[in-house]
Specification:
326 residues, alpha/beta, two-stranded antiparallel sheet, 11 helices, 12% strand
Length: 326
């Protein structure tokens, strides 16, 4: 989307305001969610486990998940009709995975001196310090993986992923684009039996080192003023789509679809064309930013917009999309 320099700066300021508010909310909400989780365990409540409802692969190494699963082992198929991108935190899982792992810290919370090191736009660097602290406190890889595997999916998301798995292979090419990390995403998807559904996972690289510390790196550097320093999802979506179209001999997808919730999901949705569809989680920052843009500049936002509260909302629209003729 081409914007004047002034309009770009104003839009960037609005997005960054939403994004920083999200980060601050995560810092405050992490303790509350940790307390709720701990209270449930103290009351003897069973840990929530979720089944994909379909045969899943045997669970792989629990503490050695790394980046090798993020790349397709064979040439990707070039006959898919639709390309669909998914965010992870608060889109597939109903919590922020970074917040959830804090529950593994001693006492279920972080010391104030560590939380005070957060700087706007540098949440990835902050999480590097958090993960180092967890390792220093003796939190094991197994504990971290168990914590992530227990994260609940967003309402209706298992049904949505089962729907996608049930479709003919040539319908959907499915990709995850997330500011979470590869270890968390791989662990959660593997545990529910949905990993094979995703052709690629674009996320911050992570791996457990020989000392059991989860090492985290930024995904890339970029010049986008709208996004955190470690990741611009618009750049990923744009480059991946262009690469795949080249690999497909110039044949474009019938539609590109994007499912997300956060302020950093708004930027990639701006790359969508009028025939494409954005699925913002209802009343979350991505949805509010789309609404604000529609009010300030009617017609500037190009994609069709389908807000969702549960995965069923997305399924209902996808059923109509697959019936459309090219």
């Amino acid at each position: 989307m081409d914007l004047s320099a002034g309009a770009e700066l104003r839009l960037s300021a609005v997005i960054n305001r939403h994004r920083v508010a999200e980060d601050l909310h995560k810092l405050k909400a992490g303790k509350r969610e940790t307390q709720h989780r701990a209270a449930g365990l103290k009351r003897g409540a069973p840990r929530r486990r979720f089944s994909a409802g379909c045969p899943g692969p045997e669970r792989k190494r629990r503490t050695e998940l790394a980046c090798e699963g993020n790349r397709a082992l064979a040439p990707p198929p070039n006959d898919r009709r639709f390309l669909i991108f998914f965010d992870f935190d608060e889109t597939l899982v109903d919590e922020c995975s970074d917040d959830a792992v804090v529950s593994a810290a001693p006492g279920g919370s972080l010391p104030s001196w560590l939380k005070d090191t957060y700087r706007p736009g540098r949440y990835n660097e902050y999480m590097q310090r958090v993960l180092a602290y967890l390792a220093e406190q003796g939190v094991t890889p197994g504990t971290i993986i168990n914590t992530i595997e227990r994260l609940p999916p967003c309402p209706g998301i298992p049904a949505l992923l089962r729907f996608l798995m049930s479709r003919p292979p040539r319908d959907f090419e499915i990709v995850c684009v997330s500011d979470a990390n590869t270890v968390f995403i791989e662990a959660w998807l593997q545990n529910l039996g949905f990993r094979q559904l995703f052709l690629r996972i674009f996320a911050n690289p992570a791996h457990f080192d020989d000392n059991g510390q989860l090492q985290l790196r930024p995904f890339h550097s970029h010049s986008c003023l709208r996004c955190p320093m470690n990741m611009c999802k618009a750049e990923i979506v744009r480059q991946y789509t262009a690469q795949r179209v080249r690999e497909r001999g110039g044949r474009r997808y019938q539609k590109v679809l994007y499912v997300g919730d956060g302020a950093n999901d708004f930027c990639p949705s701006l790359t969508l064309s009028p025939g494409d569809t954005a699925f913002p989680r209802r009343d979350f920052p991505m949805h509010r930013l789309i609404q604000e843009m529609g009010e300030a500049k009617p017609g500037e936002y190009k994609a069709n917009v389908v807000p969702w509260s549960t995965g069923e909302d997305i399924i209902n629209r996808l059923r109509k999309i697959v019936e459309e003729r090219p």
